[in-house]
Amino acid sequence: MSDAPLLLTDLYQLTMLQAYYDRGMTAPAVFEFFVRKLPQPRNFLLAAGLEQVLDFLGRARFTDAELDWLAASGRLHPRCIEALAGWRFTGDVDAMAEGTPFFPDEPILRITAPLPEAQLVETRVINLLQFQSMVAAKAARCALAAQGRLLVDFGLRRAHGAEAGLLSARASYLAGFGGSATVLAGMRWGIPLYGTMAHSYVQAHDSELDAFEHFARSHPGGTTLLIDTYDTEAAARHLLGLVQRLATEGIPVGAVRLDSGDLGEHARRVRAILDGGGLTQVRIFASGNLDEYEIARLMAEGAPIDGFGVGTRMNTSADKPYLDCAYKLQEYAGRPRRKRSEGKATWPGRKQVFRRYGADGVMLGDTLTVLGDEPLGEPLLQPVMRGGRRLAPSPALAEVRAHALRAIARLPPALRGLEPAAAYPVTVTDALHDLCRVADSAAG
Question: Are 97 and 377 contacting, i.e. CB atoms less than 8 angstroms apart?
Fold first, then answer.
């Protein structure tokens, strides 16, 4: 993923690049990534994707085959092709730590580099930050609704492509999920893996009970059995004797999974059957078209469900499948630059976000200001790359997850709810307003 080719971009990045080279426009430029507004009913977003951005910036190169194709296409002149042959990212990056809650107009990443470099990486930077931040926010809402129950990412098969499926496993774990069914996510990032069986496994056997026994014996360290292929409650009753017999042989059955129908009602009936048969230790895991709202409903009903598998609606962020985000030029050749388009005006210059907390540790509000100003609070953007080189290795994903969970716990209680809450206060300083007037005056 971080090895995505530089040609995985929009054509206008290359056409602008040639025009910049033609005019010698290679002075330092500052671009910042931010979200214009929160997608309702989100009360916060969660910064994610920085690791992949830094990997991309550190490794991005044009291959000989790509340069040959560009030359043959006739879209760029030979001088530009020659310049691209030695293209490297040599700039600086400042960013919010992954797992940090953020709000509209707050930059979560700033790139300072020669203009052609900072421009060319725009498409991929947006692609990586937008997707993971979007999924992380959705996953965080699911985790808040689940109130500590296990959540597992089940979304790979309906993700919008392999990269999306893999990155959604990462983003959801970062935001509070307990694991994923995506095996490569376990190998790559150490995400705990969970998996049971498909209905096809049960159907392939002549007897449902034989399917359960064969699977349990194949996985004697403990397993979860899918019991809703035919008749959910009948399967639960059939299990009683089998689970007790397997237990005498040291083969535990840890849980049963429900994947269809009224999950709350089935869970209540199955729980009663299991408890009546002395299997109070067997947990109930549910999946099937779940999101934060359905999880919250099941929790409010007191459904005896110990964990949830959440897939399609989370890793596509089905209710709000994109962020109104941008990566915009804020300074070039030492002068502030500002877009003034209707409905899309930007704050110019290099900026910093300061966060204030109350005595109880809960977030009070943020201040958006020009870099160098120092209002009260904790500065959120920190240097992570200088001269095209990382300043330190990326933290382990488990560390990022711990940071995210601490940060989410410090959100005002209303923002942790599923319904829209009053906007979190973000104050724009006089210094930034003054810089707007300077940029507007210079632009004419």
Answer: no
CATH of domain 11-135+322-443: 3.20.140.10
Q: Where in the chain is the domain with CATH 3.20.140.10?
A: 11-135+322-443
Spatial contact of 125 and 327, defined as CB atoms under 8 Å apart: yes
Neighbouring CB atoms inside 10 A of 440's CB total 14
Q: How far is CA 259 from CA 175, 228, 274, in A?
A: 24, 7, 17
444 pLDDT tier (thresholds 50, 70, 90): low
Name the pairing type of β-strands 335-336 and 351-357.
unpaired
Tens-digit pLDDT profile for residues 181-197:
999 999 999 999 999 99
Q: Is residue 359 classed as helix, strand or coil in its secondary structure?
A: coil
- DSSP, residue by residue, 399-443: HHHHHHHHHHHTS-GGGGSSS--PPPPEEEPHHHHHHHHHHHHHH
User: Residue 384, by phi and psi: left (phi above 0), alpha (psi -120 to 50) or beta?
Assistant: alpha
Measured CA distances, 419 to 43, 105, 139, 316, 413 (Å): 8, 22, 15, 20, 12
3-state secondary structure 263-284: HHHHHHHHHHHHHHCCCCCCEE
The identity of residue 210, as a single letter, is D
Taking only the tens place, the pLDDT of each residue in 43-63 is 999 999 999 999 999 999 999
Residue pair 347/326 in contact (Cβ under 8 Å)? The answer is: no
SS3 (DSSP) at 365:
strand
Nearest to 154 by CA among 176, 177, 180: 180
What's the rounded Cα separation, in Å, for the pair 423 and 312?
28
Decide yes or no: CATH 3.20.20.70 for domain 196-287.
yes
Number of alpha helices (DSSP H) and beta strands (DSSP E) in the chain: 16, 19
Q: Tens digits of per-residue pLDDT, 149-190?
A: 999 999 999 999 999 999 999 999 999 999 999 999 999 999
Distance of CA 335 to the CA centre of its chain: 34
R_g (Cα) of the chain, nearest Å: 26
Burial class (CB in 10 A: 0-12, 13-18, 19+), 158: middle
